[in-house]
Design a protein that fits this description.
The chain has 225 residues and is an alpha/beta fold. 21% of the residues lie in helices and 35% in strands. The protein folds into two domains: 167 residues, Vaccinia Virus protein VP39 (Rossmann fold, 3-Layer(aba) Sandwich), CATH 3.40.50.150; 42 residues. This is Class I SAM-dependent methyltransferase.
Length: 225
């Protein structure tokens, strides 16, 4: 297990604390609709950190071509209908470009600054001229409005329990997922970023905000330049 990351519950747990079976059960929310509205119809997408395909499959159903990248072979085994590549995101260099690159799941908030830089450089080198990078950010209060819980229409409860500072601006975040027949927990490191810090991180990778896609600014369309 990667230092600072931990997961508990039934089934395989990836090095960053994600439970494969848990992610296979999580509901699809509005992310595919947000993505579909921000890119051309039928676009060729590179999805970084696809996991089990929770967003991959709805995007395929909407007519997109998806290349799904994840560092977990166990996660990618659940992906159907898409080209899959097992690789750490920050090391990826496919020698090709895509109409849009997706970096969801708050990956831009990686606790390790060098990892974040690697993620954003991967986004920048794989986006085609005139294409875009779609990034999901943490919302306001993600680290401070705690504890909180959300009951999902799928019949489970998501509890964000704590975010404890561990130094250098990084928090250790602890979450719990309660299903009728199983409970999973995940502990991971995350670095809160203000809007200004986020935009500075983009600029360092040669990216800039084109527009914020949601009122809460959690989804961003970025372009090169």
């Amino acid at each position: 297990m990667r230092q600072g990351y931990e997961g508990t519950g039934p089934g395989a747990i990836t090095p960053d604390g994600c439970a494969v079976e848990l992610y296979a059960r999580l509901s699809v929310r509005d992310e595919p609709d947000i993505i579909a509205a921000a890119v051309p119809a039928g676009a060729n997408l590179l999805e970084l950190g696809s996991g089990v395909g929770r967003m991959t499959h709805p995007l395929l159903e909407r007519g997109f071509t998806v290349t799904a990248v994840d560092e977990s072979a166990e996660m990618l085994e659940r992906v159907q209908g898409a080209r899959t590549i097992c690789s750490p995101i920050e090391e990826l260099d496919l020698g090709e470009t895509f109409d849009a690159v997706l970096l969801a799941s708050f990956l831009v908030h990686a606790g390790d600054v060098e990892v974040r830089r690697g993620l954003l450089r991967t986004c920048a080198r794989h986006v085609a001229d005139g294409g875009c990078v779609l990034i999901q950010r943490e919302g306001e209060g993600y680290h401070t409005d705690l504890p909180r819980e959300r009951v999902d229409p799928g019949g489970y409860t998501v509890r964000m329990l704590s975010a404890q500072p561990v130094g250098d601006g990084v928090n250790s975040v602890h979450a719990e997922y309660v299903f009728p027949d199983a409970v999973w927990t995940q502990t991971f490191l995350a670095r809160p970023l203000t809007k200004e810090q986020f935009e500075e991180a983009l600029a360092e990778a040669g990216l800039k905000v084109d527009r914020y896609l949601t009122e809460d600014r959690t989804w961003v369309r970025a372009v090169t330049g």
